[in-house]
Amino acid sequence: MIAMKARLTPAKFAPGAYKALSQVQQYVDNCGLEQSLIELVKLRASQINGCAWCIDMHTKDARAAGETEQRLYLLSAWREAPFYSARERAALAWTEAVTKVCNGEVSDAVFDAARAEFSEAELVNLNVAVIAINSWNRMNVAFQVPAGDYKPATHKAAK
User: Fold this and answer.
1) SS3 151
2) For residue 30, what are the contacts with CB-CB under 8 A and spacing of at least 6?
3) What's the CA dihedral at 2, 96, 36, 77 to 10 degrees?
4) Quick one: pLDDT at residue 117?
5) Is 24 helix (H, G, I), strand (E, B) or coil?
6) Domain range holding 28?
C-alpha cells in the first residue's frame, strides 16, 4: 500500500476558508433534502473527481445511515441499475452534469428531469449540495489528503 501524505492541512493554514466551506456544508446538511440522497450525491461527485478521502467518508456515512451495499457498489453505474428511484436518478444526473460542467452546459433534458422531481427551492439546494462536495473534492485532491482514517461516529458527533 502506498502511504499518502497530505501536502498541507487546509484548515490549519486557512481556517477562515475551511470555516466558510463548513458553513455551506452545514446549510446543505439542513436544507431539507433527504440525507440518503445527499450522501449519494456526495459519493457520486467524489467518484467522478477521484477524491479518495471523500469516497471513503461518504461510503462510510451512507452505510452508517443504512444505505445498502448493493446500491453503493453500483452507484457509478446507476443508469444500468434498477435500485434507484426516479428522484435519485434525477439528482445523480444533475450531479454529474454540474460536476462535469466544464464539458459543456447542463442540458435541458437533465434540467427537465430534475425539475420533474424537485421543487425550485429543492433544485437550488441540490445544486448547492453539488457545489459543496465539488469544493471539498477539489480541496482534498489538490492537497492530497489521504483516505482511510475517517470514522462516521466521530464525524456525526462533531456536528
Assistant:
1) coil
2) none
3) -70
4) 98
5) helix
6) 21-149
